[in-house]
Please model this.
Amino acid sequence: MSVANSEIRSLTAKKFDCPQKFSDFCSNGGKPLGGIVGGVETAGTMNATFETIDPGNHQVLATVCEMGAAEVNKAVQAAHNAYSNPKTGWRQTPIEEKIALVMKFVELCERDRDVLLACEIFDGGKVSELAEGDFDQIRACAEYFCDVAKRIPLGDGPSLEVAPGVQGYSYREPWGVVAGIIPWNYPIVLTSWFIFPALLSGNCVLIKPAEDTPLSALYMGKLAEEAGFPPGVINVLPGRGELTGQFIAEHPVVRYISFTGSPGVGQHILRTCDRHGTRMKREMGGNGSAIVLADADPIEVARKIGRYTNQHFGQTCCTIHRVFVDQKIADDFIDAQREFFASLKIGYQADAGTELGAVINSTQKERILSAQQQTVTRGGRALLRGGVAEVTGRSGYYLKPALFQTTPEVDCNPAEVFHAFATICPVSDAEQALQLANQSPYGLGASVWTRDIEHGVALAKQFRDGTCQINCHNQIAYGLPYGGQGISGGPGAGVNCEETFTDYTQVKAVYASQYDA
Ligand code: NAD
Model:
């Protein structure tokens, strides 16, 4: 029997009250919130709007204008003009001025921390402990890329004599107009991860937030104007993916797209971009694994894995959904993990003590319920069956956690589920665990849990994943790449490293020969 270590808990909500400034922003003087195009709030010519709701109680937070082809064209034009003016263009703006504007923007975000937290908590459905950590990424990411921008010069590289009388050198420059297509699960974090390296390397940006969570990007767009970014440098284009997003992907003047989202959508956009040579970086979903070796404490590790599995209720891209545990400790591990999952406090995300809130929308709810059933149909044994949960007085998309036991012969968890959902497979040894973990076509995040760090490191390096961890999971750090292998991402190293900064630039070779005529 397990004895729970109650100090290791899931991320938890403090009570969070709606700040007046957030309500004022959402109500926008009685008008729907427009996109931001060339520094101007724009209702859009399609006359189409959509409502963004709180997933925990289905209340409408704001009505938002959807941007169509005309607004995408206008935003691209505004961004191109802001970029390319030979004297005043963003491209020419000295790096010290760019850094000053970025840091002024960060200060304004910190002044309005409550509003941005409200966006994450009410629009994104997050508990405060996670939302606060996400908010801190704004400054951390900005400071990291300001430092990188000082260290990595653009323009001419060192010159070589490539032949008698012929000098050659590289020339590095921004792409010009770049777009960031953002998913709903980490809006502030992923908007920051996009805009700071893109702007500091000299590009003008289009931000396309997810239709479920447009508020933080729209608010950040307003703060960018207040900070003094020239009109057109930062544009925000809310709308559906297949409409607004598709128009962006089809626009030939958008030279680079940074996409974060699901593999299917990423593959579709890549095909669109390829038709006119737009480069694309893709950070996509995962089906994270954890290997627990026989020397690990099964109870402590089960609770730690439970915490990572339930980060943002399992709606985190690299979250652990597949656990391979040495059969010598499997019984204790399974008991402890079931106990952790079963005791998660399901509730409204802004009520104190909530650990598992509502999922983001009805499509996700149906996908998760279907995956729970499919896991049993494919041969998984339910330890916790999942299903719909009721929260008194709230009408959100609440679901119970689900946990299944499986065997090495049964592949019952093939795709990303995106909830507090995991399969546990007892294995004979580490090699078998590694082989099963690497069978997935995804490759975002994986971890090994053991007291023997050297052995853990040796195993972790053999994962076919972009992030390999020992005795931790879901870690990120600026300076280390965060990206996916397999269908989870590519090309390149990922985000948040020096290579990310250079990804927002293109490089050409220049050859200059003496004039011998
Ligand atoms: P999604 O792929 O459905 O949508 C992502 C974005 O793409 C949204 O803004 C959407 O409007 C847009 N989009 C949809 N169709 C489009 C089209 N035809 N053209 C242009 N844009 C289009 O993903 P989601 O459900 O919003 O987010 C969850 C997914 O994101 C999960 O798979 C998750 O793992 C992944 N994710 C990955 C990372 C990472 O860093 N690897 C981080 C967060 C989330």
Remarks:
- Residues 286-470 form a domain with the Aldehyde Dehydrogenase; Chain A, domain 2 fold (CATH 3.40.309.10).
- Residues 181-186, 208, 210-211, 241-242, 245-246, 249, 260-262, 265, 268-269, 283-286, 317, 416, 444, 484, 489 surround nicotinamide-adenine-dinucleotide (CB under 6 Å).
